[in-house]
Amino acid sequence: MMEKLEESIQVLLCKLEKIFLPGFFNPMQHLLIHLPYEAKVGGAVHYRWMFFIERMLKKIKSMVGNKARVEGCIAEEWKLKEIAFLTSGYLAEEHNVFGQNPTPS
Predict the structure, then answer these.
(1) SS (H, E, C) 5-29
(2) Which of 24, 41, 48, 87 is placed for a possible disulfide with 20 were both Cys, Cβ 3.0 to 4.6 Å?
(3) What does the alpha-carbon distance between residue 62 and residue 65 come to, in Å, rounded to a whole number?
(4) 57 assigned to some structural domain
(5) Virtual CA dihedral for 92, 97, 102, 105, nearest 10 degrees?
């Protein structure tokens, strides 16, 4: 089916070039030729989707406080967040800080 789609897109673009001016076609129309091949090679879109990685990169970039030392700021902030997360988990389990109130005996 993908091969048929690739062939039909090329024919369709050739027919459109006869009707419209050459300035009508930009890289977006040319991209239609390559999309069926990308779908065939790459598979389903959710296996190639970058949204969650871009969202994580946005969070990491927001950690930068000192623009002169970007990598150090990100590493220091990441370390502090990990320590806070693990410590709060430890305190919640071991010392019952969060959650239920202890019953008086």
Answers:
(1) HHHHHHHHHHHHHHHCCHHHCCHHH
(2) 24
(3) 8
(4) yes
(5) 110
pLDDT digits (tens, 9 = 90+) for 33-50: 777 777 788 777 777 777
In a domain, 88, yes or no: yes
**104 is a domain residue:** no
Output the pTM of the full model: 0.39
Q: Which of 35, 28, 32 is nearest to 10 (CA)?
A: 32
Residues 29, 13: Cα–Cα separation, whole Å = 8
State the total domains in the chain: 2
Q: State what percent of residues in the chain have pLDDT above 90.
A: 1
Q: Where are the alpha helices (DSSP H) in 20-69?
A: 27-42, 51-61
